[in-house]
């Protein structure tokens, strides 16, 4: 009887030893799979919502320091500031990506292709719009006006720079307005910004989310201003 028990015990040990690599592999794959899933905005938002509920915090991921810029651009171009925030969130995760340069050549905080920023009538512009535009011309308002680009010198420093936050946000507002957002054609404008149905869906997700949080965002903004003023 004792020998049978020892044999059974040894068999269980061997099963555990044999299953251990499989278990570790499945665990690692599950982690990798979850990380990849979280790249999908809807899944990412769901995961962050769960985390915010567990910590008792509201999900307000729009950086307060950018809201005033969004709103100024909204005033000038009649494009919802929440739409600008949604684009900023999707394009560069509110400028936390490093570098702010995509593999295909999109530049800056709101990821403009050079030919869209400077103008598609530039002699070097074709294909995806990377062009062969000298750096000094990329930020020159006169060159941009000449070639019909959407780059804007928002802060009046003499340059329209996609790597400058104000210029980038105002330029995005300018482009979205010209694409229909100022007339309420939100989906059309988003699609024109990046011709992908998935892109439209992703931007709309955050746009509707921020629209639903307007009161909370406004309250957080006022609270921050009061704290800044020592009130």
UniProtKB/TrEMBL annotation:
Keywords: Membrane, Transmembrane, Transmembrane helix. It comes from the Bacteria. Pfam families: SLT_2. CDD domains: Slt35-like (cd13399). The keyword Transmembrane helix applies. The chain crosses the membrane at residues 12-34. Residues 146-184 form the Transglycosylase SLT domain. The keyword Membrane applies. This is Lytic transglycosylase domain-containing protein.
